Each structure stands twice: as structure tokens, then as C-alpha cells.
Amino acid sequence: MGLLTRDHIRVVNVLITVFVSLGSFTYGYCSAIISTTLGQPQFYEYLHLATYGPGLSHTNALTGAMNGLFQGGGLFGSLAVGPIADKFSRRGSIAIAAGICLIGGALQTGTVNVAMFLVARFITVCLRDRHDDAYRAIEYLHGDPSDPQQSLAKREYEAVRKQIELDCVKGNGSYKELFTNPANRKRVSIGFLLLFGAQCTATIVIANYGIILYTGLGYTAPTTLAFTAGWVSVAVAGNTITSLFVDRVGRVRFLLIGFCGCLLALVMEMWLLAVYQNSTNKAGQAAAVSFLYIHVGFYSVCVDATTYIYCTEIFPSHLRARGSSVSISGLFFATVIFTCAAPQAFGDIGWKYYIIFAVLTVMMIIIMWFYFPETKGLSLEEINALFGEDVALQAAQFSEEPDSTIAVDRIPKKEVAGITQHKETAPDV
């Protein structure tokens, strides 16, 4: 929220956000398309992979490696993007990542054997003091054509600048600062746990191996492909709903609703698979498919986008790139484990593999309830107060005069390295 209200949101803000979010489509498409790829008999014939008999175990190991290496590339890239973004700028890091994805996608398309495909999957996701430029960027994003003084942009810039100065007094934005400062350690643990825990709902396994799940329920192509397309469509619609309600409901509350909903769907899915997977009961099998849809509905509406919002905004400005990258590495760390193990696990223990995800989801619900602070309605600078840190200037205490003067005389102040700041007590969470 910060200083901005709905009236101050400009078309350019929306367009930039939409453009940047195309990066998620780059990852999401490549992650999801493997499910339908594994459902194509021609894929196995082309790469000379057995679909039954003695060679099936080898095929399961390779399909696990295909997904595992893809997520491993994401793990490498998520850890690399922090220093890259700080060195080459956010735009620069996006350009570098886009180039790598282009190369990886081309190699996957032109694959002639399993080894080439595995390498291509990995490559696909492997990847100051400019105050005048900073103000111009804020004015471009938040400027008001009806206000020649650009008072809103000036107040927003002043809040950000002073908070960054205050943060830099306390550290240099290194990875060491993430783990030596108690408040930052809490941020990192929350961010990493959240992104790791989101994958403990089994969503990534369902996304990557949906065709196998539908086939196990007795369905065949093209029905299995239609189910997968519908599942992905629900996910897209769910993320759209997130954008409408996440600021009203609150981040942590939204996450709790989503995790509880995913847990309920998982439990019902396990029961239905245990009873109907090897039966001829069409109603029971259809119900099992429906709960996969209910599962992704809860995940996409309440969990998916919310995890990225939350793990990004809890970090101070000078640590946001590195903190977010470490947090998102938790996502890929989890997906490497779960996607590599899934083919063999489904072959050996079947529906019981979901028990692991159900237990982990229960643990995540408990951790979030007691450990995660709510950030609803707070500016990025004010969120520092939730972690017991200093806030340079609060948005609510800005002067409403049409110039850049900020009324801070009423705020209890102290001087640290020449920077005006005050200690803010954390609100109830």
C-alpha cells in the first residue's frame, strides 16, 4: 500500500507489472509442459524409452531427472539472481535470464537424445547512489499529471531514500548480513520456509506428473491432456483472483486458508485413490480428478502469488534482491527433491506418497500460525517495524502539503550517522 491509493495507480504501472510477470510464464510454461510431454507416446519412442517391462524403472529414473534438473537449474538461478540484480540492475538481470531461457528452450526443442534434453532443461532456468535516476523512476511510475509539483512522487521517493540510507548504516547488503543480523535471519527463515512449504502441498508433483495420475485413474488420451489443460487454466484464473483480494484479506490469512484447503483436498484425494484407483467405479475416479482441481484452486487463489509477494516485501530495500533469491531457492530445493522422487514413489507406494505432503502441510500451517507476521496495509518501509527494526519515516506521517516537505517534528527522533530515524513498535500481528 504505502503512499499509493487506487486513484494513484497508473496504466504504466500495470503494463510494467504485466511485462515483468511474463518471466513467470517462461518458467511456468516449461515446468507445466513436461506433464503433457510425458503423456505423448511419441516422446518415449523418439528417445527410445521403455513404457513397460524391465526398462520401465530406467524410464522412471530419467523422467525424474528431467524434472529434477529443470528445478536444479532454477535453484542455481534463484541464488545467482541476487548478486546479478545488484550488479547489473533489475532490468539487466531480467535480460540475462531471458537470454538464458531462450537458449535453453531452443535446445529442448531441438533435442535429439536424452542427454541433450536433460542439459537443456537445466539451462532453461539457470539463471548505486544514483538518486536522480531513482527519483525519475518513481516520478515515472507514480507521477500525477494533474499535480505539477509531483508531491506524491516526492514523498514516496523521500520515504524510500531515507529508509535505504538508514538500512545501509546498519549493513552493506551482503549475504553475510542476511545471516548475522537477528531480524534478517528471521526474514530469511520465513522466506525460505514459505517457498519450500508451498511445494510441500504436492502442487508441483501434480503439475509435472498429472498425466501419470490421470492415467492411473483409468483415463486415456486425449482425456488426460484435456484434464491437464483444465488444471492449468484453473491455476491461471486463481492467480487473477489473488490480485483482487490479497490486499483485503491479508497475506498470512490468505496463506492459511490456502494451505488448509490444500490439506483437505489432499486427504480426500488419498482416500479416493486408495478406494477407486484400481476399480471400475467411474464416479469415484471422477471425484478423484475433481479434488485435484479443488486442490489447485485453493493453491492458485491463496498460495501461489501470495508467497512471492510476502517473501519479497519482508526484506529491506538494500537486501531485497539477495533475500528474495535465497527465499525462492527454497522453492527449487523442494521441487528438486519431490519431482525427482515422484516417478519411483508413485510406482512403488502409489497414493501413499501423498501422506508425506499432508504431514508437511500440517507442519507448515502450524509454523505460519505462530511465526509469520501479517504485513497487510503496511508500506515496504513500515514492515521493518514488524521485525523490531528502525523506520526512517512512516507514510502515515507525511505532510499532505503539495510540496516535498515532510512533517516529522512530532516524531520522537534520534540521530544516527546524521540520519533522522525513530524506533517504531511493532503492531499487533
UniProtKB/TrEMBL annotation:
Pfam families the UniProt entry points to: Sugar_tr
Question: In which compartments does the protein localize?
Answer: Membrane
Record flagged with keyword Oxidoreductase: no
Looking at the UniProt entry, the stretches that span the membrane are 12-34, 94-120, 190-212, 224-246, 253-274, 286-311, 323-345, 351-372
* Domain of life the protein comes from: Eukaryota
Q: Name one GO cellular component term.
A: membrane
Which keywords does this chain's UniProt record carry?
Membrane, Transmembrane, Transmembrane helix
Q: How does it sit in the membrane?
A: Multi-pass membrane protein
UniProt GO molecular function: carbohydrate:proton symporter activity
Q: Which Gene3D superfamilies match?
A: MFS general substrate transporter like domains
Q: What is this protein's name? A: Major facilitator superfamily (MFS) profile domain-containing protein
